[in-house]
Amino acid sequence: MNARMNRQGFIALTGATSLAAFLAACGGSSSGDSDAGSSAAAGSGDTSAAAPVGFDPATEPDAPLLVFTWSGYDESPVPDGAPWMWQEYTDGPYGAKSPLKFTFLDDDTQALAKVASGFAADIIHPCGGYIQKWKEAGLIQPLDVALLPDWDGVPESLKAPGLIDGAYYHLPFDVGFTSLTYDADAVDFSKVGGEESWKILLDDRYKGQISLFNGPDEIIEYAALANRGAKDPTELTIEEIAAAKETALLMKQNVRNYWTSQNDTVNDFVNGNILITATWPDGYWKIKTHPKMKDRNIQYMQPIEGRLTWICGLVLSAASKQPGRAMLAMAAANTPAAGAAVTDNYQYASGQKAGVSELITNKELITAFGLDDPALWEPPMAWPQKAVEPYKEFIAAGQEVINA
Amino acid sequence: MAVSAKTPAPPVPKRQRSRREQRNDGGTAVSTYGLLAPMLILLGVLFLAPLYYIFLFSVGLKRFSPTDALASLNGELNSFSTGLWSKLVSVDVTVMLPGLNFNVPVLLIGIFFLVLLVAAVTANRIPEYGNWLVGIAFVLLLAPFLTIPAGNNLLRLLELSSDGDYMRLFFKSVTMAMTSSVTAVLIAIPVAYFLAFCVGKSKYTWLLIVIAPFLTSYLLRVFAWKVILGDQGLINSGLTSIGLIDEPLTFLIYSQFTVIVVLTYAWVPFICLPIFLAFETIDRRLLEAAMDLGATRLQAFRKISLPIIAPGIVAAFLFVFIPSIGEYITPTLVGGTQGTMYGQSLASQFVGGAFNWQFGSVMSLFLLGVVLLLTFATARFLRAGGGGL
User: Fold this and answer.
1) How many distinct structural domains can be found in chain A?
2) What does the H/E/C string look like for A339-386?
3) B203 at A interface, C-beta within 8 A
4) CATH top-level class for B62-388?
5) B36 and A40: CB-CB below 8 Å?
């Protein structure tokens, strides 16, 4: 009997083991594929009926309701006793039977990939430009808007990105600007026409003092706004994309870094590394209210070309086994109280407009972000980010700028 | 007695080996395989299987997306595409010497480096000039990638660039990784020497102090660097307050320099260990003998210590170089627009809206190929006895 393993034996064993591992991995993943495939197929079966079916929460299984959302949209940010977006659901009849369970996403595309590969979630929280892609991939189903008592409080302009083939797929929940936060004592627009403009990114007096968001699409959109003025930056021809890319490359010479986490750029700003940064409303507010910035004149740019806006909200997974209960949770997030909570905690506007202003505790926010002025949120004052076409060229141009 | 002397002795029957002896003889098949199993399973599940999949994705034999709609969204062609590979590798490489620039195809550069690599690990067999050849091969291998960071510029003799975005980023990453790994090794050698020879009994206390930074999260350490290197950070405000500078030194944060500094800092404690262990294996009597025969400390180090620790140094270099070349998080946090690396570009094929998974697989397979080649070459180099160092 050969007690010691010889070289051939070892190689044979290694081969056999890795083969076994391969087979296990292949088997596992192919079954995963087919699961995801069948659920997607089931989803597209559902979606083929344009009119939503009535969901019945009472007959659905008592299992946790999985919410796949951005960090901060769980239970955490609210001080004791103050209302939060899920309040009405957790206090309701199914709050204990199907408690909400949260998983966090980092990125729209990463979330899409994760759900597509079989990750089970009932409610997902994607943003404007991607709803069409979720629908195309057969991962979401139409909402039963009859189950949303406050649905009429959401303006049509916000509902529009989620209206596909006559059915609503998206409940707008949080809406915000993307614009430049800058120190008005240190930055002047005299070289670019005297008025606030995206062209300030081309002013080489601020070389090395600018930070922008690390999104390939946004990098092209800033440049398109600077190039074309107050025109929709998400609707560009191939030539306009190429021109925007050249402008974005010029901007890059002044840019110090492309940020991936808003907290980083807030820290960079208050620590004096940059003077101008692209932020969302909460980033601007954090900088403005930071103790170190007390004596500085921090402004949120309202450029002549218009700001960008993003619309994020909740969608219902095609694979959800508790669509009725999920709709109840969405109804909770659509209440005026939930809308006021998102403004108070994150300085974003809410998708829900009716009766929200009265509930907002910090009234200062209403004037700071023009929450009572719908015109400020619509073209040509602000351009909602939506699915851009031609998508590949748009993103590739932005990536080439980042990689250059 | 006479009879037995003429005829050959009958073969002595082999004594039956006791069970205990068999057990001690390297163990049974069961225990050998049992000991290996965890490693083999880890290797199979966490390395070979993903590798196999990346390969399939990269040549289009398999796609990740369960549905056609998603596949087209993810840029998965589900067929072999030479276009994706040529986007990465059929580009021109610009070789930049002082006062001279010329273009060559990537393939030629690849073959050139392969020849250098083979020469570096085999030329020591050639009598007389072998060691010189090894030395020249090493210098040529390192020259384009080894730099001296000086402010916003990296000083070097020879630079490789490319008209292809990805190849240019790749050369840049190799340069940054090479510079930080060589710097890290140069810092770690004296530290390891100090630990092994200068501190006597308290060496393990010192070792603990050296590796103490590892007890903190990597992200925290990077953020600490941002506090130190920022425009109003420790260094800039210190230099301003003693009147050395008026304007902050802006290259300290968000530049290639920052990435190199942070990578070097991050790896020095880690590679002190293999070099320290290599120093520990040196027989002190050899050094004493060298001194007795009139060698200086430096000569003793050069002739005795260095050949013994050479494998440790090469291993330490690879420990830093391989993870650094595909770095993602460090350049993201402190690299700014100047310090972008290949790893970030690779990751952006999968996340951040690019939807280009097949090309991402191609990029990762290319990186893996380079790293594997280097690893094999190093293994060969070490087996050949350190290439005659």
Assistant:
1) 2
2) HHHHHHHHCCEECCCCCCHHHCCCCHHHHHCCCCCHHHHCCCCEEECC
3) no
4) mainly alpha
5) no
